[in-house]
Amino acid sequence: MLWCVLTPAPPDPQRSSAPDTPASPSVPIVPIAPEVGGWPALACWAGNYTSQVSLELAVPALSFEISGSLRLFGGQGALLARIREELPVTPQPLNLAVAPVARGALWLARAGDQRVYEDLSGMRAALCQVPLSVLPWPLSVQERLRGFGFRRLGDLIDLPRAALATRIGRPRVLDLARALGELADPLPWFQFPQRFVQSLELPAPVNSAPALLFAARRLVSALTGWLAVRMASASVLHWQIAHGRGQPPTCLPLHFSEPVHTPARIERVLKEALDRLPLPAPALELWLTVAQVQAQDARTQTLFAGGAGASAETGLAELIDRLHARLGVAAVSALACQADHRPERASVEGPLTDKGAGVIPYPQVGAGNTAIARPLCLFDTPVALAEHQGRPWRGGALQLLAGPERIESGWWDGDDAVRDYFIAQDRQRCWLWVFRSGGSAPRWFLHGLFS
Question: Which end of the chain is less crowded, N or C, counting CB atoms within 10 A of the terminal residue's CB?
Answer without folding.
Answer: C
